[in-house]
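Our example pasted here:


***
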Amino acid sequence: MTVNLKSFIRTYLAICIALSAIAIYQTEEQTRALTRIASRYKWAVLIGVFALNVIVGIFVYVSPQKIFPFLENSEFKKPPALALKILGIVLIFAGFPFLWYVKFYFFGKALTALFPLLWVMWGAASIQAVILKRITRFSWPAVFMAALLLNGIVFQIYAIFQPVTDYPFSLGWSEASRFYYGSLPFSQSIYGVKLPLSIWHGTRYFLLSIPFLIKGLPLWADRLWQAILWLGLTALTSWSLIRRIKVQDRITNWILGGWFFLFLFQGAVYYQLQVMVAIILLGVSARRPWHSLIAVLAASFWAGMSRLNWYPVPAMLAIAIYLLEEPFSRENNFWRYIARPALWGLAGLVTALLGQAFYIVISGNADVSGFTSSLRSPLLWYRWFPSDTNPLGIIPGILIVSLPLFALLFWTLRGRLNNLHFVRSSGLALMLLALFGGGLVVSAKIGGGGDLHNMDAYMVMLALIAAYFMTQRVETESAGRSAFEAAAWPLITLMLIVPVAFSLSRIVPPISYDRAQAQKDLSALRETVQSYGKSGEVLFMYERHLLTFGMIPNVPLTKDYEVIALMEMAISGNQPYLDKFYSDLKNHRFAAIVARKQNLDANSGDFAEESALWNKLVAYPLLCEYEPTLTLESSNIQVFVPRAVPECPLPSPANRQP
């Protein structure tokens, strides 16, 4: 990856100036909001530093006569001593705790905006790049790209491992429920009864079930395993892309792999989807048609057991690779050229449907209506735009992710589009458009829209296409024509800084909790449910993982009405399922129900529609027939028992009943 030094330094200065200007604006806005803070002067000084950065940056940008020769002559002829290398590595890694200190102690809760922290990271990366330059003697652009990506990767890894804790209760409304669903393939040995598998995300729970091969592992081990899945499968997919493209330059390979690794986390692209992406990247080859077909079938079968909107994705990725690597001129016949992609598309879709049918059979679910519940869910179009659910919004968010890559593609293709036959370019564009539109629709489904993860297939396709063009690995129609133009450094910088900024935005303090209080809550909950369990069924609507990991023993599992399933049935309007739930409540089937504290006023804010439906279809009927007998304030858990006389606590029950 060759970059002109003058282009590199001008881009560096331009972005530094832009970051400083936006940081000034965000710091001033935050300072105005803080009418009384003892350290207000600190932010004035900080704004002054940002302003000085803008002035100096502009001066150097327009008068670069001194800085360019300095950088051009800064090549180190002798390798550094071992002690200097060790010191350099220590200083590089010192940048990470420094950024941590700035965010949580210097900025603290007063300055939470992204761009001031991004400016600090830019400065830290500059120092790290100087050290890397001395240690490795790579080019200035290469070491700066490496420093940028290193910061993003370190903090992304931290964000993934951050939930690995021994806290006994769920970290979110459904966090630990995932491990319960992962236990279901081994339900006979864990619960003493054969239970049906989850009707959603089957492959995710197959992957999460692996730790249950070892009996007695605690909850933190399963949290650790999920972190390993995130990092390991994302790294595998990134390595698969590097291996696929086969760039000879080692530093380019590392930078491409690091960028792709961070890019996938912007959605994030879930690890179970990455399994089929890796299969396609490793298995598809235009020179090995049968090998390619097997890869498409295997990945499509996996997709069929995963999610409905992923069914065509393996074949589409394989077709994209074919269009990027195979010139139309090699066949020079439309029907012969599209025969293989057409076969992959048809075979992939059929195999995905077979994968779904196979999973339905092995899942053991008597009622299969839940497998299509997502098709009946309402669509909330406003979530395309900034809202309480997603302050960034789906469309603005995906545009931020996409625009650097589209700008790169435009630059690469300008004036050279005739090097790519119309069938190839239109095929790539149509697949991108289809995945983009499909992702937008799925993101608007109630229950979604909180982040970009439903744009996952589109993001993978876009990144794959951009990687081929960026590395000039796209086969042209004629060897006699000029190749596609190399990507410009400003575009590469923007392409790198966006996923790095996403990773920085996810830096949060470590999870801490009062261990004594948590154990006290767990003991109180254990004693209560064991007591009620002697007289009847105990429903763990929430916190079912406490049974999975033996933290509450001697309580038989009731398989119905787990919180994820109940929420999905509520938002999809599955009336037969809800009617059975209401009947069980009315008949006081359960001696006790373990749930979170029900907040009937939570009908606004993020996921307002979901909260309103939950309150109307679940919480209100529950509180009519059951009342809390135990409340654990620190963990927000309640145990509900049947009311002697039904009592509906809302002021207008006629308007709230299902």
